[in-house]
Amino acid sequence: MKITEKEVRYVADLANLRLTDEEIVRMAHDLDEILTHMDKLNELDTTGVEPMAQVLYPAGETAALRADMVKPGTPNAEAIASAPTAGQGYFKVPRVIER
Amino acid sequence: MTPIAQLTIADIRKGLKEKTFSAQELATEALRFAEAENPKTNAYLRLAPERATAQAKRVDEALAKGLDPGPLAGVPVAVKDVIVTRGLKTTCGSRLLAEYVPPYDATVVARLEHAGGLIIGKTNCDEFAMGSSNENSAFGPVRNPVALDRVPGGSSGGSAAVVAQGTAVVSLGSDTGGSIRQPASFCGVVGVTPTYGRVSRYGLVAFASSLDHVGPLARNVSDAATLLQVIAGRDAMDMTSAEAPVPDYQAALTGDVRGLRIGLPKQYFDGLAADTANHIYKAVDGLKRSGCEVKEVSLPNTEYAISAYYIICTAEASSNLARYDGVRYTTRSSETPTLIDMYRNTRGEGFGTECKRRIMLGTYVLSHGYYDAYYLKAQRVRALITQDFHRAFEEVDALITPVSPFPAFRLGEKLADPLEMYLSDIYTITGDLAGIPCMSVPCGTTAEGLPVGMQILTKHFDESGMFRIAYAHEHP
Q1: For residue B5, what pLDDT is reported?
Q2: B285-299 core/surface letters (b: 16 or more CB in 10 A; e: else)
Q3: Contact between B459 and B245 (Cβ < 8 Å)
Q4: What is the pLDDT at residue B99?
Q5: B370/A contact by beta carbon, under 8 A
Q6: Looking at residue B213, which CATH number applies to its domain?
Q7: Around Cβ B77, how many Cβ atoms within 10 Å?
Q8: In a domain, B71, yes or no
Q9: Which residues of chain A make contact with B460, given a CB cutoff of 8 A?
Q10: Is the pLDDT of residue A65 over 80?
Q11: Other beta carbons less than 10 A from residue B250's beta carbon
C-alpha cells in the first residue's frame, strides 16, 4: 500500500481540491497503482546524475533579457472581463477579513 | 471547386493566383463543410465564421492590389482549444473555462493569421490536453473520422480529426507526451512535434511547461512543413523560445536521402504487434532502397520513461493548474461560504476525473518527504533518457520507431484503467522528455483498415532532416 485514504485527503487539501468520498476511494486505488509502477525508477542508479529541469541543447549566448521598455499592458476592463464577479476594476472574492 | 478535403496549400496558392476561386469562397466552403460534417465527429467545439470571413476578405483585397497575401493565404486552419484566440472562446475542453473569452491572441495564432491563414474554428481536445483518447473533454468525446466507433487519439484528437475529415487543410495541436503524434497516427495524418523552443508557447494554456510544444498537423509532409515555417522562430513574449535561425524547410523536401543513417532502437520494437511492426519495417525497407543506411541502436533507459514522464508532467500540471481558483476565469462554485471553500469547491466541481488524478499525483510527488524520491529522481532519469538520444545521434542521423503500440481503439475501451492508458504513451513521451523534434507519418493500415503511424526523430533543431526522410517516405 503506497497511499492511504487519509493521505489522499491530506493531498487533496494541499491541492485545494474538494473530492467526494467516492472520489477519495477511487483516487486511493488509482494513485496506489500508479505509484507502485513508479517504484521502477528505484532500479536505476542515478548517483552523480544532474537533475534535468529543462531541455538542454548547445546554444549561443542567451538573449532572454530584453530591453526594459514600457509597453501597454492588457486594459483593466479586458483583464477582468472573464471574472465570475468583478467590480470597480477589481476581482471580487468572498470576504477574507471580518470587521 | 475541388473539395476542401482534397486541397493542399500549393493547390490553394495556385487557385488564388489563377483566380479559380477566391479566399472568401474557400472560407464559405470550408465553413459549410465543417458544419455539415461536425455532428459525425464532434471535432470542432465551435466554428469561427466571422473571423474566417473577415480574414478571407483581407486576403482577397491584398490579392486584388497585387500584394503578397502570405504563405498561408486562404488556407483553412483549425486551432486546438488550448491555444488562446482573442475574442473567440477558448475552453481547453474544461467546464472551468466553458465561457472564457481570452483578451489576446497566442503568438502562433497571430503568425498564422499574419501569413493569411483562415481560422475556421477551435478543436476539441482532452481537458487541459491531458489524455490519449480525447474522451476526457468536458464537451464530449471526438470520434475518429476513419472509423466512427473509435477514438481519434489524444489529446489533440479534434485537430487530427478535422484534417483527416478534410474540414480543415491544416491544424495546430499541442504535444506534451505525444498529443500531436498519437492522434495523427490514429487518424492517418502527419503530425509534427518540433524541437522544444522552436515554436513560441505564448498563449498556449500551460499543462507541463518543461514539456509543452505547439506543432502542426496536415495531410502531407509539405503542408506540415509550411505551417511550421510560419509559426517557428524566436518570440520576445516567450523566453523559452530559441534564437536559432529557422531554415527553409521546403528545401529539404527533395526525396534525396542517400547516405542518411537511420537507427531502429531495439527497445521500441520488442514485443510490438506484428500488424504495426511490419508496416514500419516495410517503410524502412523503402528508405533503404532510396539510399539510407539502416542499423539497430539501443536506448537502454526507455523502460523508465513512463514513470519519469508521469512524475514530471503531473508535478508541473499541479502547479500550472493552481490558477483555476474561481477568481479570474469565468467559473466559480455557488458554494462559497469562505475563500478556501470557494477554491476547493470550484476546483472539485470544475475539473474532470483525469485532471483531478494528475493534480493529486503531482501534488503528492512534490509534497514534503516525497520530493527527492519522486520528482528529483525523475529529473535525473530524464537526463539519462536524453543522454541515450545524444549517444544514438553520434551513430545515426535519425531514429525510426512506432508511434503507438496499437491503432485507434474503441470508445470506452481503455477508460477503466488509467495506468494502462499512461503505458500506451511509451513511444512518444521520450521525444518530449529529450526535447528533440519528432513526427508521425502515415505508413499503412491494419487488416481492419485502421491507420498506422511511423515516428521519425532527429537531433535538436534538425526538423529539416526529419522532413527530408518523411518526404522521401511519402514519395517513394
Answers
A1: 85
A2: eebeebebebeebeb
A3: no
A4: 93
A5: no
A6: 3.90.1300.10
A7: 29
A8: yes
A9: 55, 57
A10: no
A11: 15
pLDDT band at A58 (very low <50, low <70, confident <90, very high): low
**Vertex B158: Cα angle to B253 and B27 (nearest 5):** 75
Is position B290 annotated as part of the catalytic site? no
Distance CA(B279)–CA(B277), nearest Å, equals: 6
Contacts of B469 (CB under 8 A, 6+ apart): B257, B260, B262, B287, B292, B398, B400, B456
Which one, of A32, A55, A92, A40, lies nearest residue B379 by Cα?
A55
Nearest CA in chain B to A19: B348
Q: Which residue in B292, B345, B342, B227 sits closest to B472, CA to CA?
A: B292
Which B residues 382-421 touch A at CB under 8 Å?
A: 382-384, 386, 418-419
Asked if pLDDT for residue B74 goes beyond 90, the answer is: yes
Could you say which residues from 178 to 217 on chain B have a Cβ atom under 8 Å away from some Cβ of chain A? 195-197, 210
Asked if the C-beta of A28 comes within 8 angstroms of chain B's C-beta atoms, the answer is: no
* Rg of chain A on CA atoms, in Å: 23
Span B54-71, mean pLDDT? 97
| Number of domains into which chain B is organized | 1
Domain count, chain A: 1
Over range B345-370, report the average pLDDT.
96
Q: Give yes or no for A54 touching B (CB within 8 A).
A: yes
3-state secondary structure of A20: coil
CATH number of the domain within which A27 lies: 1.10.20
- Can you tell me the mean pLDDT for B7-11? 97
Cα–Cα distance, B301 to B391 (Å, whole number):
12
What is the distance between the alpha carbons of residues B254 and B207, in angstroms, rounded to a whole number? 37
> Whole-angstrom Cα distance, residue B252 to residue B244?
18
Q: What is the pTM of this model?
A: 0.97
Chain A residues in contact with B343 (beta carbon < 8 A): 16
d(CA A19, CA B349): 9
Instruction: Pick B379's closest partner by Cβ from A52, A57, A91.
Output: A52
Torsion angle of C-alpha atoms A52, B322, B317, B331, degrees rounded to 10:
-160
Segments forming the whole domain that contains residue B20: 1-307+400-476
Q: Which residues pair with B441 in a beta bridge?
A: B454
3-class DSSP assignment, residue B400: strand
What integer pLDDT is reported at residue A63 of this predicted model? 54
